[in-house]
């Protein structure tokens, strides 16, 4: 059987693909890899369709043993990768023979490493996706040592090797934001947002929770539940914003002051607790 | 009605009423625009998400502005009946708050026809409108840390059923054995926006 044995995980290792969009009206979050370009690249590097499932490993620390000969690739932040304790690069295809052990170290910067394997992780899909959704508990359980992950049939040849080196993350993130739809609940929303914010340890796949100068509302009262998109910056009563990521709820009852532009989301997926970020609001 | 921009690829349509919201939702769906990815109803809003770079948002707006919202396109709602054992922990509280007996609470709850306005909170959790006035009551002061799956409750203008065990602050009237959400089923959520729902008392 083409399969991987999970030997060890870091703090959290989850099967992820591109998620299950289009089901928000049933209360189902989009989910999927948080750093989408990283998973897409990892898949291309092993000859997969970009839609194949891989493993999203928080703070690295993932070790797997191959039951079959396969091609793997690790993307995301720079990290030490070894096969039977011999060092290899990231962002490049690596051949692993049956019985060999691949280990991903702990990245010095960033948060989430992605492992793709030729054929893709072929656990049973749920609602059209193999992604683990931590908010609603849909999809495969978080990985544990001893798990056996089935692999699909390998198909293509690797592409994208010339694409890029591992991204270097800046010390301070600048995050472009489009104001609205509820920026009118705040006085001078652009000025309020354009200050330094710190990513807190309560952040997860549901949202990035930020600390800083609380956003004071100009308008009191409650907002009836309304739809949310990934990247929405919601402001609960505390005034401390939450940037919703892929496992966000489908509706919420607090005003959304602005929405992060999609191209800035991968960097947010890699923002560690303690990272400083500054929103750059655009009208 | 207001059209509020929502990031690069979405718009939030703010409506005057629940019925206008519902009409906007069915109009956008009936337009069958291939680049509309999500149509997410809220209590007074419809969020429309489009494929990036497409013209679907302006097409959706044209469809809504051309529509007769008093007579929206038929959405072919399903009729669902849920059998409920009215033995909820808050049945007496609801009765006392309404100033009626527990039996009268059950009569009111089973006598009304409800509509799924929107979902949220958890997969398959449907917010049903149509709750009789005496049953429109506030949430519990302290939410329960665990509400069993199938619990039938009410809060504000809504009634609904918890699809699975979760924390929750709704006042609980009883419970149903019916499965509300099954991700392996062809139709995963029993209740989808627009569906009509009735509750039936079972002993």
Automatic annotation (TrEMBL), chain A:
Record keywords, A-Z: ATP-binding, Hydrolase, Nucleotide-binding, Transferase
Ranges of residues in domain Carboxyltransferase: 25-283
Keyword flag Hydrolase: yes
Classification via InterPro entries: CT_A_B (IPR003778), Cyclophilin-like_dom_sf (IPR029000), PxpC (IPR052708)
GO MF, one example: hydrolase activity
Keyword Transferase: yes
Record-linked SMART domains: AHS2 (SM00797)
Pfam family for this entry, one: CT_A_B
Cited NCBIfam families: urea_amlyse_rel
The name this protein goes by in its record: Biotin-dependent carboxyltransferase family protein
Organism encoding this protein: Amycolatopsis acidiphila
Upper classification of the organism: Bacteria, Bacillati, Actinomycetota, Actinomycetes, Pseudonocardiales
From TrEMBL, chain B:
E.C. numbers: 3.5.2.9
Top-level EC class: hydrolase
Lineage top rank: taxon: Bacteria
One Pfam family from the record: CT_C_D
Domain Carboxyltransferase: 1-191
Molecular functions per Gene Ontology: 5-oxoprolinase (ATP-hydrolyzing) activity; ATP binding
Keywords, ordered alphabetically: ATP-binding, Hydrolase, Nucleotide-binding
Listed PANTHER family: 5-OXOPROLINASE SUBUNIT B
Name of this chain's protein: 5-oxoprolinase subunit PxpB
Highest classification ranks of the organism: Bacteria, Bacillati, Actinomycetota, Actinomycetes, Pseudonocardiales
